[in-house]
Specification:
The complex is a heterodimer.
Chain A (H helix, E strand, L loop, with lengths): L7 H17 L6 H25 L8 E9 L4 E7 L1 H20 L8 H20 L3 H10 L1 H11 L5 H34 L6 H4 L6 H18 L8 H8 L2 H26 L1 H27 L4 H20 L4 H32 L15 H15 L5 H16 L1 H26 L6 H4 L6 H19 L2 H25 L5 H14 L1
Helix pairs in contact in A: 1-2, 1-4, 2-3, 2-4, 3-4, 3-11, 3-14, 3-20, 4-5, 4-6, 4-11, 5-7, 6-7, 7-9, 7-10, 9-11, 9-12, 10-11, 10-13, 11-13, 11-14, 11-20, 12-13, 12-17, 12-20, 13-14, 13-16, 13-17, 14-15, 14-16, 14-19, 14-20, 15-17, 16-17, 16-19
Chain B lengths: L2 H7 L4 H19 L6 H17 L7 E3 L4 E3 L1 H28 L4 H19 L3 H19 L6 H32 L4 H10 L6 H18 L8 H7 L2 H26 L8 H20 L4 H22 L2 H31 L12 H4 L1 H15 L5 H15 L3 H25 L20 H19 L2 H12 L3
Antiparallel strand pairs in B: 1-2
Helix pairs in contact in B: 2-3, 2-5, 3-4, 3-5, 4-5, 4-11, 4-14, 4-19, 4-20, 5-6, 5-11, 6-7, 6-11, 7-9, 7-10, 8-11, 9-11, 10-11, 10-13, 11-13, 11-14, 12-13, 12-18, 13-14, 13-17, 13-18, 14-16, 14-17, 14-19, 14-20, 16-18, 17-18, 17-19
Classes of the chains: A mainly alpha, B mainly alpha.
């Protein structure tokens, strides 16, 4: 294809690094200039992302804004970026939250602000890079690079008590998953080289392969483990509460809003299109883990005493929905999953921002330390309420659309799954509203809370866009859904094909499922 | 042989000649220069090495000299360059510690130059006698260097251990060579290869036994498990710049010799050892990493981590393919720069405070000298194999070669090992960036934060190479591929 005149995606991805360069020359003590530099760069990135959004053509399934340069020609590694409808939405989310994150740490971070902003900008480059990479090695590099700034954010600016433990746990968990993905990438590469003679790590050539079933199984596991840890899915979730709780506010926001999406994005980008038969094979397992995650995460929320930990566990539950939607293999389900990634980014991001603001004022996050906050801080309460309602899926706000689509898609495949998933929605209403009741309603029980300062204009300014997006998606989701629909259909093409052909094939899982159906019927 | 022919043949060993001549000049100058001004000798050593490095550019490719004793091909040029880069970085590192500990003398630089000469001759060797000579030249020089701080107990212990076990290694090697000589009738690699190529059945028990002994000798020098027991004590006792030099230089030279032995001289033998190679690689990296986990001293931790890296390097040998050997060369380059870099930061910390070996000494380094902290993080992340650093490129190429040859399980063991390794490297990074030390923070422009000229040369050099190999590996990969190409 014709090379584009302006490398929009590369500029978007590497703009934060320009900010890093500028920051290196700013005086350490000059916090104001540092903040404004970071804010300008992040806002510039968002403006570029708007250009990408405006120029994106939803009528085609091909990758757009593609750039391809050879990097290590001998090994078939190239710098290849491009976006489709799915990555477009995630890129938009990442770029949208960039300036908001800088605003959120405006007064919060006082120690080593410069290093903090450098980490944040590096993180932004890494995350955008993951979503636009179309070369598996490039993807892997961005995926790994991003670990370092995130671990440093937790380590250096986290909550003093357990930040080292949390940072190390986060780093090792993620790395353990991703190195096996590297082995998977290599196996895939050499399989391709042997069978077709093309030595390339390019996603687009690998998507055309038809792999033997046994190889698909192993590769699904190798890739899937990396993604399942990142999501995090049920048995691999234990790093998440620690990392979230100990991270600084902005760290939690980025972690919840964007980093976790890299896992679900990975399933959509790699596992479904590349290993369709294995995806069908593992579907019962994945759905089971997703359902366990939804319900287990919700029950864990009910017993949390710490606001941040509660929201962290609610992420486990919400991401379970995304996985459920993706592995329903229906267009509605996956569309719902994609939208739910954005929704979760907005609503959980907002909740972490709000808890951070509360922590800045009161230096505690324990639910028991609050009560009756609606009287001293009415504006804060309003915003928190909106974010809560978005998170539990009130119609008219974004959460509803995503969850509804996911449950709809799942219902088509197996009504029982949808029923079990729906209990997660009910439980979410329970734990979130109960938490809101304990924190904001009733009388003020602690004297310190009576004199809390309400939101300042900066804080309102950074929350209003997030809330506006929640309402926008809630009222008019079509404009977003239609951007991702062709891509979703394209992703599902292989899998739906193998769902059809797999009807006749018997595998242990399907035999187990069939046996179960049989027993139920008797 | 007339004088003129000798002179002609000398073009095959130009770098070695320049290095040893520089060493001799330094010894002479040392005798005439007053105490306290010996620092200039370091500059001479650096100049000589730079010239020797430059002489590689005019290397005649693929020619054998001195009646097939040495060969100057692209393979030896690549490894010689790696060795000399390592030596250069070590020279820069040595300036300050030598001045500080009063060890400043010409012999130090001269011995490092002689050791490098020996290593270069070893990778150039086309004849087993030459190979053995090279091995002995650098071994003896390093025995002395390890024991250089002669009033220190630890250094004495280290030197003695190294001499004794090094003697065993040489003995194994020689004993093995006698069997190989008996089986093939020659010690010249090309004659041997021709001899083996003719024989239909090469399953000769003398040959196998001999090659096993040679392998054991190499394994001693490379510190492969279970031949590694001397490593931690010797690495810990030696002066830190010498530890860095041993860890990288000896590995590069011996791996070069190993490749020549098993691929050029005995191409039909190593398939018999494939399972053994496999086990050696797996055990070496696992034991090295597990032992490194338990160390409280960073120097000892790096010693065990160098054992683990020998294991990763051996994975490339197991792969037994052109790609594998290419990966081996790239990894050796990456390992040289990042490992010298990591030891370099340790030397810089030692320059600033009494000791710089314990984990505790690195606490809060980021507030005392942010530059050193950043370098330490770079080198350790590179050793851990996090992209986009040289360490990742090396690991990636090694693993991909092994997967290509069908050793997927070995690669899975290797990647699990690199997660274990990430933990102990991360422990140091956390110590360096440990929060809560702000009270002790000094002015970043203070004495501790500023780097001396030697430190700057070593750290910026190693850091730049770590980044360049990580970001643009293509050029280095190409050179390595051409280097390996000449062997087949």
């Amino acid at each position: 294809m014709e090379p584009l005149s302006f490398p929009l995606l590369s500029t978007l991805v590497f703009l934060p690094l320009v900010g890093v360069l500028v920051l290196l020359f700013v005086d350490r003590e000059n916090h104001a200039v540092q903040r404004w530099t970071a804010l300008t760069v992040m806002s510039g990135g968002f403006v570029l992302a708007l250009f990408v959004y405006a120029g994106f053509d939803p009528g085609t399934v091909a990758f757009q804004f593609e750039e391809k340069h050879t990097w290590i020609p001998g090994l078939g590694i190239s710098y290849h970026v491009g976006i489709d409808g799915i990555s477009l939405l995630l890129v938009m989310l990442t770029a949208f939250l960039g300036p908001i994150c800088v605003l959120a740490c405006w007064t919060d971070i006082r120690v080593r602000l410069k290093e903090f902003l450098v980490c944040l900008l590096f993180l932004q480059t890494g995350m955008l890079g993951v979503f636009v990479s179309l070369d598996l090695i490039l993807f892997y590099i961005f995926w790994e690079v991003m670990l370092i700034p995130m671990a440093l954010l937790i380590l250096m600016w986290g909550h003093p008590a357990r930040r080292i433990y949390a940072a190390v746990k986060f780093f090792l968990y993620t790395m353990a998953g991703s190195v096996l993905m590297l082995v998977g990438i290599l196996v895939l590469y050499f399989y391709q080289a042997r069978t077709t003679g093309t030595a390339s790590f390019d996603w687009t050539t690998m998507a055309g392969l038809s792999l033997p079933f046994s190889l698909q199984l192993w590769l699904f596991l190798a890739f899937g483990l990396a993604f399942a840890i990142k999501v995090p899915m049920f048995p691999f979730h234990t790093w998440l509460p620690d990392a979230h709780t100990e991270a600084p506010t902005v760290g939690s926001v980025v972690l919840a809003a964007v980093l976790l999406k890299m896992g679900t994005y990975g399933f959509l980008r790699f596992n479904l299109p590349l290993f369709p038969d294995a995806s069908v094979f593992f579907m019962p397992l994945m759905v089971a883990l997703a359902l366990v995650g939804i319900i287990y995460g919700a029950f864990m929320c009910l017993v949390q005493k710490d606001l941040k930990r509660l929201i962290a566990f609610s992420s486990v539950s919400h991401l379970g929905f995304v996985i459920l939607g993706i592995f329903s293999f229906t267009v509605q389900g996956v569309q719902g999953g994609v939208l739910q990634m954005i929704n979760h980014g907005l609503s959980t991001g907002a909740l972490f921002l709000l808890v951070g603001m509360l922590y800045e004022r009161r230096h505690t996050r324990m639910i028991a330390d609050f009560g009756g906050l609606s009287t001293p801080v009415p504006t804060f309460t309003t915003f928190f309420m909106i974010a809560t309602l978005a998170s539990i899926g009130l119609p008219g706000l974004n959460g509803f659309v995503g969850e509804f689509l996911i449950l709809l898609g799942t219902f088509h495949v197996k009504p029982v799954w949808a029923v079990l998933g729906a209990t997660g929605v009910i439980l979410a209403a329970w734990y979130m509203l109960w938490m809101v009741q304990r924190v904001f309603y009733g009388t003020v029980t602690h004297a310190e809370n009576a004199t809390l300062r309400d939101l300042v204009p900066r804080e309102i300014g950074l929350l209003v866009p997030v809330v506006a997006m929640m309402v926008w998606i809630g009222v008019a989701p079509t404009s977003f859904l239609q951007k991702s629909e062709p891509a979703v259909q394209h992703v599902l093409k292989n899998v739906q094909e193998s769902v059809r052909t797999a009807q006749g094939r018997s595998t242990p899982w399907m035999m187990a499922c069939a046996a179960w159906e049989h027993l139920k019927g008797k | 042989m007339s004088a003129l022919t000798v002179l002609y043949e000398c073009q095959g060993i130009v770098p070695a000649l320049i290095l040893s001549a520089t060493g001799v000049v330094i010894l002479l100058l040392d005798a005439f220069s007053p105490l306290g001004r010996k620092g200039r000798l370091g500059a001479v050593a650096v100049t000589g090495t730079v010239f020797a490095l430059g002489s590689l550019a005019v290397a005649p490719s693929g020619a054998e000299f001195f009646h097939g004793m040495v060969v100057w091909d692209r393979f030896s040029v690549f490894l010689s360059a790696v060795l000399m880069v390592g030596a250069l970085l070590v020279f820069f590192l040595s300036f300050d510690p030598l001045r500080r500990s009063g060890l400043e003398c010409g012999e130090y630089y001269a011995l490092v130059l002689f050791a490098t000469t020996g290593m270069i001759l070893m990778v150039q060797a086309a004849h087993f006698i030459m190979l053995f000579l090279g091995l002995e030249i650098f071994s003896i020089a390093i025995y002395i260097l390890v024991g250089m701080p002669r009033h220190e107990k630890r250094a004495n212990e280290a030197a003695l251990k190294y001499v004794l076990l090094g003697g065993f290694a040489s003995g194994f090697l020689l004993y093995g060579l006698t069997f190989i000589y008996g089986a093939t009738g020659s010690l010249s690699m090309s004659v041997m290869a021709a001899q083996l190529g003719k024989a239909d059945a090469v399953f000769n028990s003398y040959l196998l036994f001999g090659s096993a002994l040679v392998l054991a000798g190499f394994a001693f020098k490379l510190a492969l498990v279970p031949f590694h027991l001397w490593t931690p004590d010797v690495y810990e006792g030696a002066p830190t710049p010498i530890t860095a030099y041993m860890a990288v230089g000896v590995k590069a030279a011996v791996f070069g010799a190993l490749v020549r032995t098993f691929w050029v001289a005995l191409p039909t033998v190593h398939p018999h050892w494939a399972v053994f190679f496999w086990a050696l690689a797996a055990v070496t990296m696992t034991v090295g990493n597990l032992m490194a986990l338990a160390q409280e001293s960073v120097k000892r931790m790096l010693a065990f981590s160098s054992i683990a890296h020998a294991g990763y390097l051996f994975v490339a040998v197991v792969a037994d393919s052109k790609e594998g050997l290419t990966a081996l060369l790239v990894y050796l380059l990456a390992y040289t720069v990042m490992n010298v870099g990591a030891f370099g930061v340790m030397v810089a910390v030692q320059n600033r405070q009494e000791s710089g070996e314990r984990l505790e000494d690195f606490r809060g380094l980021s507030s005392r000298s942010p530059f050193l902290a950043a370098f330490m993080a770079l080198f350790l992340f590179s050793l851990a194999g996090i992209p986009p650093t040289a360490g990742f490129v090396g690991k990636f190429m090694v693993f991909s070669a092994a997967v290509q040859s069908g050793y997927t399980w070995l690669v899975i063991i290797a990647v699990i090992n690199s997660v274990i390794a990430a933990y102990y490297y991360l422990r140091v990074v956390i110590m360096v960036y440990r929060p809560g030390e702000e009270a002790a923070a000094e002015d970043p422009a203070s004495e501790a934060a500023r780097l001396s000229a030697g430190e700057r040369g070593a750290l910026f050099g190693a850091g730049a190479l770590t980044a360049v190999v990580g970001l643009w590996p293509n050029a280095f990969w190409d050179l390595a591929r051409q280097a390996v190409h000449v062997l087949f």
